[in-house]
Amino acid sequence: MEDDRRTMVTLLACGSFNPITNMHLRMFELARDYLEDTGRYKVVKGIISAVGDGYKKKGLIEAFHRVKMARLATENSEWITVDAWESLQLEWVETAKVVRHHYSLLTADEQDGDLVDSVNYTKKRRMEGNYVESASHHSKRVGPQLMLLCGADVLESFCIPNLWKQEDIAEIVGRFGMVCITRCGSDPHKFIYKSDMLWKHHKNIHVVTDWVTNDISATHVRRALRRGQSVRYLLPDNVLYYIQEHDLYSAESEQKNAGVVLAPLQRYSGDPSS
Q: Which of 126, 172, 238, 269 has its CA 20 to 30 A from that of 191?
């Protein structure tokens, strides 16, 4: 009966995954352990959503390859899956919209019976009309919950001008919630304290300390690949074999989108509220 009272949680990680690394996968495990150790949550699913080519990030290889590598990396996982919806959009999709999309799927009629029961269905439908909820209401709601999973660098990117809409940040942390994994040199607690908006919803932001520190990053992996250095054990072997088979990362690929303004900066620099 105790398990029945826990909130069922789906973790959603959005990003480039260029390429996916063992650290990306490790984040899911750390988040699940942390949430379940509270006794309040049961993590039932993890979703990896790779950004589309329209993001225009320097060195970003085609979404087809990034999604394929993510699927290879998770093929032995019993609970982490890959969703290609975001990657297939012709234009860049804001993270808040991606979260809404997956939440709508989570609460749809055809959702598996172990995630959505008929008793709570009406209550959940009423909640869909509110994009931004107070932290107190957020903590009391019943039914499945979707949380955005990210590293501390994503949380700290909230302060970069024209990279995020303020209302999107409020929606993500206020309505859905976040699980943030610490990284070397970061202090998420201090960043949350300094931000009035994040502090308002700080009860919805779960900061998870990674005590076995791991500084693997996709940037480091791409650099090593360009230099012909070994990246084995930094990412799953089948992902490495795929990279080698398709010769994905090189000095030429790292120059892709060079000189192109990042999609959110293009969209928001003229009118931050657009």
A: 269
Sheet holding 205-208, edge to edge: 80-83, 41-50, 7-15, 145-151, 178-181, 205-208
Q: Tens of pLDDT along the chain (274 residues)?
A: 455 789 999 999 999 999 999 999 999 999 999 999 999 999 999 999 999 999 999 999 999 999 999 999 999 999 999 999 999 999 999 999 999 999 999 988 345 554 444 334 334 444 444 444 433 344 444 578 999 999 999 999 999 999 999 999 999 999 999 999 998 777 899 999 999 999 999 999 999 998 877 778 899 999 999 999 999 999 999 999 999 999 999 999 999 999 999 999 999 876 444 3
CA 213 to the chain's CA centroid? 19
Which whole-number Å values give the CA distances from 225 to 20, 39, 241, 247, in the listed order?
Answer: 14, 42, 12, 10
Token readout for 212 is: 């076995």
Name, in order, each residue with C-beta under 8 angstroms of 219's C-beta and a sequence gap of 6 or more: none
Maximal C-alpha separation, the chain: 57
CA pair distance 199, 188, nearest whole angstrom: 11
- DSSP string across 135-174: HHHHHH--S-EEEEEEEHHHHHGGGSTTTS-HHHHHHIII
Q: How far apart are CA 95 and CA 122, in angstroms?
A: 27
Q: Which of 158, 145, 153 is closest to 181 using CA atoms?
A: 153
Q: How many residues does the chain have?
A: 274
